[in-house]
Design brief:
This protein is mainly β. Helix content is 8%, strand content 38%. It binds alpha-D-galactopyranose (GLA). Alpha-D-galactopyranose binds next to strand 24.
Length: 373
């Protein structure tokens, strides 16, 4: 090694050891009508990032990220108090489960038994049912490891909850490191065969929450195929190429550039509200998506071991919800990128399986890496 590069390496090592470790603190966030206490955990680092997570719904309530000038903004839509989350939320920042996304007719058959789940989206089951994991109180515990700080959120879903078989022990761990990576790790175990598909339902606006629509954001999806849906947004079972369609995000593309195209799938979704089939070799963690806001320079990259990602363009936001700092969430003021197994997998034998059996451990990891360009 040349002397110059050795000195360089020593500087880097010295710099790393001088950089403070990410931190986690805890305080009370609020109390539910029944008297149940809800704690808030704050993760922060010296790179300008702060993440706040509450025990209700394991919701990420704030996500402070610097822009290319170092100015920090909150890029997550949400509320600034518990009562608003309880009153009405389109899953802002929450963990959705036991099954994120839709199950057709809210039914599946497992080992000869037909299970009827709660139907909360017309005739279908969506995001875990009437009272999914986004509406329960989790138990949080601060986590500190070398180079990262976080919180593990635990919840035990009883046998039969929202119609699902098996008592399910769930742990979702959020960690923040000094590379501005927010990692979400999911674990679950069951005592009866069941279906599990957990995801994080964050709404992002890289310009800052409430500061305009996401139509100018540029999106890249590492996916050559997607799963088209019927009018009720249940996959038809087809795995369709994105080539030559408004669903091709294999190169960075402004979200607004084709969202108004005449296309039956866009019509069904009211815009983008679909699952893309991620290109990958094996079940390994790989690049899934990149979201970039040319105005602020903020960029978010997503890496996951999941086979799919739901891109939802905030088509149901209509200006009726007033979020943090009094911001009004108008049409398409936020978007979701939910790493997941495909919708309706329990009824689609050729989709990757979401079945979990006793003795197995459900394990999946998604990383959100924030940077500027
Ligand atoms: C998911 C669904 C959408 C919608 C939103 C929340 O992304 O696919 O259809 O339900 O959640 O409004």
């Amino acid at each position: 090694m040349k002397r110059g590069s050795l000195v360089g390496v020593l500087w880097v090592v010295a710099g790393l050891s001088l950089m403070a470790e990410p931190r986690v603190t805890q305080r009370s966030y609020g109390e539910l009508a029944g008297g149940e206490q809800v704690a808030e955990f704050t993760l922060s680092n010296d790179k300008g990032m702060t993440v706040r997570i509450i025990e209700y719904g394991a919701i990420i309530t704030e996500l402070l990220v610097p822009d290319r000038e170092g100015r920090v903004a909150d890029v997550a839509l949400g509320y600034d108090n518990l009562a608003d989350y309880v009153a009405a939320t389109p899953y802002f920042g929450a963990i959705v489960g036991r099954y994120g996304n839709r199950i057709g007719a809210g039914q599946f058959e497992l080992d000869g038994t037909v299970y009827q789940l709660a139907t909360n989206n017309e005739a279908n089951h969506l995001h875990g049912g009437v009272k999914g994991f986004d509406k329960v109180v989790w138990k949080g515990e601060a986590v500190k490891r070398v180079g990262e700080a976080g919180v593990v959120m635990r919840y035990r879903s009883p046998d039969g909850e929202e119609g699902y078989p098996g008592s399910l022990e769930v742990a979702v761990t959020y960690t923040l490191d000094n590379e501005n990576q927010l990692t979400v790790s999911y674990e679950a175990q069951t005592d009866k065969a069941t279906h599990v598909n957990l995801t994080s339902h964050g709404y992002f606006n890289l310009r800052g929450q409430g500061r305009g629509s996401i139509l100018d954001h540029e999106l890249t999806l590492n996916a050559a195929f997607y799963t088209p849906v019927d009018a009720g947004l249940i996959p038809t079972g087809e795995i369709r190429t994105v080539a030559g369609t408004p669903f091709d995000f294999t190169r960075p593309t402004k979200i607004g550039s084709r969202i108004h195209a005449v296309d039956e799938q866009l019509q069904f979704g009211g815009g983008y509200d679909h699952n893309w089939v991620l290109d990958k070799s094996g079940g390994k963690r790989s690049f899934a998506a990149r979201l970039y806001d040319p105005e602020s320079g903020r960029q978010m990259e997503i890496f996951t071991d999941e086979p799919g990602i739901q891109f939802y363009a905030g088509n149901f936001l209509d200006g009726t919800l007033v979020g943090k700092e009094g911001m009004v969430y108008h049409y398409r003021y936020g978007l979701c990128l939910e790493t997941q197994h495909f919708p309706d997998s329990p009824n689609k034998g050729h989709f990757p399986s979401t079945r979990l059996d006793p003795g197995e451990v459900y394990r999946t990891v998604t990383v959100h890496r924030f940077s500027v360009q």
